[in-house]
């Protein structure tokens, strides 16, 4: 990457817009609300998803407290059922789906391409507002009784009058329906940006692996989300007008709903995890000062996951009433997922070999990702094996499995990425010691919380249970205590970030000594990311081609 | 435990150790490389080369493992779904939030099922309201009960003892209390149990005229009728049954005398003539033998 990207202080007139960073160019709330700057939109997304993460996290902690003792601990079953449904809806639709792509991707992707902005800045702002509009529907539903259907809204329960009294199913499904459009628009925007906005010399082979991951994710978002939209619309119509697509009493088929739902929601799992893998590839590259081994294999495995993700939705329904032959095909296809997932893990580990590894806080998250995702992935084997899945389906084993992938994977990637790009976004450094302490507590707490749930599930403890048999109490208590450690860890991280905003030291241009393009421009970046359009002469990980000046802190 | 469970456990344990070895290898490699190649002044990372052979190796090798895992998984699964010849058929009806079991003899029992050891069974599942999932951890068996269709689980219990049954598909408020128990007993005990089910229980027979009323009351509670129908005049979900026998009731089919036949019809086909004001309530039908039905009606008539 050419040195032209490095701005030299004083070359331009003092106080010119070229020199001011994107946070300083304009001031005031108004300038944020109508901004077309991808970085500011990303920051607003970041604030929104962090609020959602906090809310969903509090729901989770409350759930775990209820499960501390057998029978009633702090709430009745109606409240508990609403709480776990809200935890799922908020975490999936409001936090994890937009977390890395819409928040982090918005800020970083155009800079990594050497572009001034995304391809459609106004569409970008629109998708933020659609997300907020959808979230308002979700909030309305929560205030008006919430839902007790789980985040899956399975029929005929969700479409019938049997749902808990005063449940607001329609506003909640509309919330997910509306937020889907936000997801689609972001996907369209990123695809166009990657195709059309690359700086001169930014060949496909020189794209960052984060960009490749977001590109794969965007394809899934554009292709799968409309299916969820139509499914939720049909559910709403069925509830409001008795349409009869899903409810057997009206001549419908409840299993059809599950096919529709998982046809979106399984690919959605890859909307959640693939960006996390992208972040980890960046972290491993930067903190090993080495191009990730098998660059093209990692990039293509993201696309492979995106493709395979569309073919395996049936593995959510092995005991739901599908034919044995359908189950056989879905089981076989499900196993193929292991290949691209394995390729990524092997390549990351191989990158460490003969690297120059620094265990700064972002790297700790990346290494935990490898460990936890390995467990998350391998426990997926149990669930892909038909005979074993019959026993484990809808038990805590599944709960633990997807938390190992979604929290152990995506959240580790998200928080690692946040530590990595925090100076780039805010221009401030955070304290390293609390960051490491927070990481340690999250890592330990997470494993205590969910390792015990694998055991619970294998012993037959079903999920979504307000109460349980006496023999499960010990493991539930271990899990609850683990959730407290996990919670304290996240609070430390939050406080550390907040303190850095107010009293953090100013970040140098390239605090990690990274060769990636986003660190070659000023920190925080100017309004249009680069003072001059950069000309790309090497890939983002080619440390042996990077100049000392590029790798220097300032 | 069932005969099929051992195969499933073997597969589970194999996968467990396979995964364990894998996790240990990955973790040890990660930690070892991280320690060995910690950043040192003046030492640069070795630039990455093309390692196509290595890439092909770890793309193809796992393929061999997963082919085997898939094959064993499907084979075991298929074996466990084939109903053995001569399997006894029981009906399992899920409704919120209880399971009702019907024996081949036509006897019904709520939330408890007694099976004979070493006799293959086929449990035919159905649901009367929303999705449920019939889950017996000890038999490693699970299948959703889907309204509007039948599904089944089949297994051969091979150990005496009790096995808990859970509902594994979320079905509303008391989902976590939708439990049942399977008793696996000897051939002798099984026969004794069936005899017991089909006659008026001794404890009630001794009471003479009072017998059916008392038995009816116990059936009324055992089948969860009291969850929706009070006997003291308060309205719960359905109408209270206090003093209704022998009175005229406004229904969807006009004024009806609540006599023995109406009560019987309302239990067996609740949707036929619904009392005004309860049209939207979905009471599931209940199946009883004649003697049981008589006892329940006797009990309802006794509530004044």
Structure overview:
The complex is a heterodimer of chains A (about 550) and B (about 300). With about 550 residues, chain A is an all-alpha fold. Chain A contains 16 helices and no strands. The model of chain A is unreliable at about 1-15 (pLDDT under 50). Chain B has about 300 residues and is α+β, with helices and mostly antiparallel strands. In chain B, the strands form three sheets. Chain B has a five-stranded mixed β-sheet with strand order 3-2-1-5-8, with no helix packed on it. In chain B, strands 4-10-9-6-7 form a five-stranded mixed β-sheet. In chain B, helix 1 (about 5-35) runs antiparallel to helix 2 and helix 5 (about 210-220) packs across helix 7. Chains A and B meet through helix 3, helix 7, helix 9, helix 10 and helix 11 of A and helix 1, helix 2, strand 7 and strand 9 of B.
